[in-house]
């Protein structure tokens, strides 16, 4: 069993929230508090040599903490949280349950085949000598952790019109690919890791994609209580591509509906 701390940089979003004069100081503070919960998470990875389950550690929200109402679970899911991520590296597939706009999905697909490049650099993590590996992979359009601010120099017309809109969503875009840096420990000879990271000759103790860093903070190799590792079963079965397309379609609808920070961005429900 391994415990991972996940932190995603939210500087882009914070800068837009702080510069938006239409957002009240009270709402700004509520958004920042909620962002901290969505961008800083703790996960537990239970694993053996061929299978693993990766779950977010559940935390109770204080009453009235969320400014987004029922949209919190949806946003948490799109920030890498919620649900159970099961992967089988022997059969090279994964299953993850997702909740999006009030509907349960069961995403089943093949594990991404990462072309790892072994580097010579090493460092110590938790007493284990770790080796560096890098890879480039396509970005999941349903994972908002990878969004970034649009380059206003490339789109001067849109930059000029920015003052006329309060739609924060329009100011961001999703990259096509991201570079992953992973640190793995050969002393723990399992080809496992957090989320959908896998395929290295040792447990991945740290992974970074530029905006999100996932770092192992605790490791128990011989737990007294055996954990049952099994895939989730609830939800409408769908492929990753189909799920991404569903999210993109609904987010586009939200973009059109959202006329400001106090609009009904979180009120839609799946049919």
Describe the overall structure:
This protein has 271 residues and is α+β, with helices and mostly antiparallel strands. It has one domain (2-257). 20% of the residues lie in helices and 34% in strands. The protein is built from five helices and 14 strands. It has helices spanning 11-19, 25-39, 72-78, 156-161, 240-257, and strands at 2-8, 40-47, 51-56, 84-88, 93-100, 103-110, 117-125, 128-138, 148-149, 172-173, 177-185, 203-208, 212-219, 236-238. The chain has a twelve-stranded mixed sheet. Strands 9-10 form a two-stranded antiparallel ribbon. β2 (40-47) and β3 (51-56) form a beta hairpin. The longest helix has 18 residues, at 240-257. Residues 62-71, 158-168 and 263-271 have low confidence and may be disordered.
What keywords describe this structure?
12-stranded mixed sheet, alpha+beta, 5 helices, disordered C terminus, 271 residues, two-stranded antiparallel sheet
Mean pLDDT: 79
Give the SSE string: EHHEEHEEEEEEHEEEEEH
Distance between the termini: 39 Å
Query: What structural class should be given to the helix and strand makeup?
Result: alpha+beta
Major β-sheet strand ordering: 7-8-11-12-13-1-2-3-4-5-6-14
Compute the CA-based radius of gyration.
19 Å
Helical residue percent? 10-25%
Number of helices: 5
